[in-house]
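Case study.
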Amino acid sequence: MVSEMKSPLAVQGLCKNYPAFTLQDVSFSLVPGSITGFIGRNGAGKTTTINSMLSFVRPDAGKISFFGMPWDENEQEIKAKIGFVSAGMTYHTRKKLKAITAVTKAFYPEWDDGAYRKYMGVFGLDEEKTPAELSNGMKIKYALALALSHGAELMILDEPTSGLDPVSREELVEVFLNLKDEGKTVFFSTHITSDLEKCADRILFLQQGRLKADDTLEGFRDTWRIAECAGEIPQEIAQAACGKCRTKDGYTVLVRKEDAEASAVREASLEEIMIHLEKEADRE
Amino acid sequence: MKMLMKEWKLCMHPMGYIMLLCTALVLVPGYPYGVTCFYMGLAIFFICLTARENHDAAYTLMLPVSRRDAVRGRILFCSVLEVLDLVLIAVFILVKKAIGDTPNPAGLDAGVALVGDAMIIFAIFNLVFFPNYYKDINKPGKAFCFAAIAVFLWIVLEIAGTYAVPFFRDVLDRPDPAYLSDKLLFTFGALALFVAGTAWSIQISTKKFEAVDLSL
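After joint prediction, the assembly is written out as follows.
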């Protein structure tokens, strides 16, 4: 765990109540220069968490600080150091990119035109186009180019790879890895866990508004094993098994590594862990 | 200035320019001239609608500005349009005087008092529209309905006043330069109302926008 002062983002005890949903006591901090995947099924509270972090919604409780600075007193300084990209949100779709850029850059004294040209070139973006003329992947790349040109050190991305084809997703994963190489911190929410297997250093797993895991990717995966059962679940793991999932050959269940040592089990992928834990939560 | 530029470059709707031109309706004989101000209100509604469709709030709030700056930027930009509307109304009043004026049976004549009347209409619009709009920026139509009702109520009262209220009928609705000092006093009072009303609108709107959870 990184100290609050050094962390690009530290969240403590974040709570938000809605009539049909509660985000409960979410706490985590990001490691500088790392990629953190924020996973959970649709409706788990990922977007609510991100919106609370960025003050789009007002949390009922909790402390949020960026680079050791609380949001309320340092909003402008913080915003100059972060970039936010949401896949479902495209701004001013009928304006040319150069018009949006011209307006955006006026707000950032640290704007770097050289970096902007570089990223527009790297991402293959044409300033004469409008966002409406770009593919979803290109829209995200444009938003990233804007953020990187004002010197953002932390990129917050809400479902950036949703709705993208596998090739575009792979391209974005490469972009995230390059950003990490440049020392940037990347935080992105997704339910497409295979993208995280390729790039994430840490995993935050949110389930029904509660943070269920905060671990390294390897640590999180190593906690669990998958047991494949043709018929009944073997006696030795039946007590510890969670999230029974139907497969074409029988069933799979998730078991903790320490409960499965005597059984025929294999490593679990992030997707399998998430699905089985969600199944278990539904059963409970 | 940066926020005004942002509003103009990204949020300005063509209706804004068209409705500025609608101030030429002051040249039409027998027309309720206050309605030209309502048209500008309609343009402001279109600007807010365009902003919603383009996720402008999310874009703006990710810039290094506060919610207060976002509110102030939008309302001041719309106020600039209203001031341009007032200037054009004044210009067309002068044009009308030059080409020959006739008394207006549908409300105030085209004269100094009409500029004051327009300022009152904008003050009412700003005070009703923006605080309702910033309660929920995804429902500009609802805010516009409230503002339109308030503005039309004033326009109806103003027209009725030119028949029934002595100050309106015998002073404000007389051809210029009759009672010019009274009309100027009315217009300066209306200017104070416009400035104070807009400032108050910014204050209330900011308070509402600060408290609201945004579903962007």
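Observations recorded in class. The first strand of chain A starts at residue 10 and ends at 18. The interface with chain B takes residues 51, 54-58, 75-77, 79-80, 83-84, 86, 89-95, 99-100, 102-104, 106-108 of chain A (CB under 8 Å). We will return to this complex in the next lecture.
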